[in-house]
Amino acid sequence: MGNLIDIAVIPGDGIGPEVVAEAVKVLNFVTNGGKNEIKLTNYKLGAEHWLETGETLPEETLEAIKKHDAILFGAVGAAPGDTRIPSGIIEREMLLKLRFSLDHFVNLRPAKLYPGIESPLANPGEIDFVVVREGTEGPYVGNGGSVRTGTAHEIATEVSVNTAYGVERVVRDAFRRASERERKHVTLVHKHNVLVYAGHLWKRTVEMVAQEFPEVAHDYLHVDAATIFLTTDPSRFDVIVTDNLFGDILTDQAGAITGGIGLAASGNINMDRTYPSMFEPVHGSAPDIAGQQKADPTAAILSVALMLEHLGLTEEARTVEQAVEKEITSRQELTDNRTTSEIGDAIVALLA
Amino acid sequence: MGNLIDIAVIPGDGIGPEVVAEAVKVLNFVTNGGKNEIKLTNYKLGAEHWLETGETLPEETLEAIKKHDAILFGAVGAAPGDTRIPSGIIEREMLLKLRFSLDHFVNLRPAKLYPGIESPLANPGEIDFVVVREGTEGPYVGNGGSVRTGTAHEIATEVSVNTAYGVERVVRDAFRRASERERKHVTLVHKHNVLVYAGHLWKRTVEMVAQEFPEVAHDYLHVDAATIFLTTDPSRFDVIVTDNLFGDILTDQAGAITGGIGLAASGNINMDRTYPSMFEPVHGSAPDIAGQQKADPTAAILSVALMLEHLGLTEEARTVEQAVEKEITSRQELTDNRTTSEIGDAIVALLA
Ligand SMILES: CC(C)[C@H](C(=O)O)[C@@H](O)C(=O)O
Ligand SMILES: CC(C)[C@H](C(=O)O)[C@@H](O)C(=O)O
Predict the structure, then answer these.
(1) Burial (CB count <10 Å: 0-12, 13-18, 19+), residue B182
(2) Isopropylmalate dehydrogenase-like domain: which residues (chains A, B) (predicted)?
(3) pTM for this prediction
(4) Are residues A134 and A230 in the same domain?
(5) Which of A23, A29, B157, B170 shows the greatest Cβ crowding within 10 Å of its Cβ?
């Protein structure tokens, strides 16, 4: 007799359903016959769904999603040329609405260069860090506006909102994660010489929380300098903690230097567990290769590992990670010719 | 009989004076005996000056600087550990104050991988693009604040201010520059799926200005995706136009992939010529190697080329650029053992 693990699945658009199918395969396999039973509920959301229904994320759907233990998310987004869908509407009214409504204050994005994966950097060194990106504040709050719109006198503003409450909880999470890692090092990334008020709130908070973790060292980098070190010396990083927008930028760069965001997993985590956390590959819906079994499901599968970890199934999480690592290491080239489901099957075979 | 070119020189802190000395050497040489006479006026400003006097940029000094034809700027900034200087004060009340007071709306930052320079990228390809960074708006306006500061209930905000006036002039500048380049291509970088109001002002402005330049193609990238392409395919870029903060981030990354910001030049340009423009290496004051003749003056010398170009001395600008290119190409290793002034002399020798 096992625990019932009740997962909401949002396959989404483009390659989303294909990679999620492989993630589900792995999820079922690793928990199967063991202590746990998986219950999956599919939610049709995304650009396709919007085209059919005009819905982004209805209140009832959001309420239903809140009842699950966790969310497995594929990818959403229309084809770039598709002008039928107002730009950004799915991102904001669905993806960001989930992150904000479910209070996903830790946007966790590990960056690891696996053996066998080619980095675009000439001398990448050992890359193994995590970015703890704030997920519910900063310039993402949607607090902008414009006046005299469309005229020569237009003024458009965007307001970054940062609270002691919001910054402290994510900084504490970063230090806790660092304290459990080997190198025990936190780097705050911001731009406090220009963004004085937000920057100093972050700096002061790091100084304060650091006192609770005397075993964890910490330093500071301006965001511009951080992009340099991600290029010249990424192995210096252990845990990066940063705001929502800087985290968005740095994690795409982190994905690139570790062999592409096709491998990058992420968790949108509510550490207070008041609402379910959501696990998603960093990549988008890639409409150009959708439905062709060309997508790499690895990022989605690694997101399952993050989900298992969050659900307390640490051993299962480790098993998935190790199988993925083994599978990746065995690849001869980054772009192999196997189908999406062949890669999923290869990982399942290694779990067996 | 020649023109009188009246230059304000702000050597600044750290390695600033050393690299500026070489830049001045080149400036004197290239205009010497020719049609022009150079008049140089030194202004002592920066962290050192602040420690001595408590002044950042007094009004009289600013007014005096406004009278020159152009400004040659070294670098400012205290040593990182120096707690005597309030963090960011020199950057904001001196460097940014100059950029804003002198209406430097085009922050021009070329990124070129010179033959002979090693890129940290494994397959950099041909890198030769310019970033046209907006210089007087965006999150840099200093429009932030905080309430309940220092308490658990603190709220800190930063406001990004964007105007049709400010965006249009810099976008038009980018298209004009692109129209004079071989590939004639502009990429707008922003994050309009999240920063809706500012992002759409930028997008609409690009669409509008593009109509004046039918020969220039244009596309759009979110800032996070831009960091990926700067890693995997930087040769795709020709002219990037972007806001003040995204430009800050991307140009440091651009410096890194082209062999380090030790080579990256920049111009803070007032295209309306209502005030003098300012030319500065992208690198900082590097206090750790200051006064040791270890700094590479190349970025400062390339900034002189941008200055000459802006002053209409196109031929002289080209001469400096070509000498620098020749000198760089002849280097065996990026970090050679020559002193700052030996490198300056080598470039002057190639001018002769
Ligand atoms: C799609 C977009 C809103 C999203 C973000 O900016 O957070 C994406 O870039 C990401 O990083 O998950
Ligand atoms: C020193 C700092 C204020 C400045 C900026 O952010 O613009 C610097 O990083 C630059 O890029 O010139």
Answers:
(1) exposed
(2) 6-347
(3) 0.96
(4) yes
(5) A23
